[in-house]
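ugh ok fine here u go
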Amino acid sequence: MKKYMDPLAVTMANLGVSPNLISILGLLFAFISGLMFLYRRLILAFCFILLSGFFDVLDGAVARASGSSSSFGAFFDSMLDRISDFLIISSILYASLCTLEWGILALAGSFLVSYARARGEALGVEMSGVGIAERAERLIILALGSLLNLIEWAIIAIAILTLLTVTIRFYKVWIELRET
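structure:
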């Protein structure tokens, strides 16, 4: 993926496109995806989830290509990712495309995955790649669920996998910090 993303990122950087603007576009596509769920346009929701995910990857690549990576940019991107997750999953819930219980578990799990990583890293534990349901995987599951009209199953998978990921991250932090 890097070999395809890097040339595009360099082009965007050369055009002066801000990584934060790209992050905002990712949020916009997540919002539109949420609207598509509300109107039960699952194929369009699929397309906009993929666009949102693509822009989520592109913003970091453009930041690196332009040399404009910053702590604030990382924070901004992370915050918009959480808002995007909320918009998509809450729209699925509001449209009654999944049960309330599984939807709430998927939403809570999505937030806890990010929180566990942030808190673990704040305590000095390397959390990159720990677990199996980071944002990219969750977006792929939602996109496939939309494409195949299996939204309830996608939400169930996200709920289970995010809570498993949180457990794995908890265990990693516990192992590394229990002696301190």
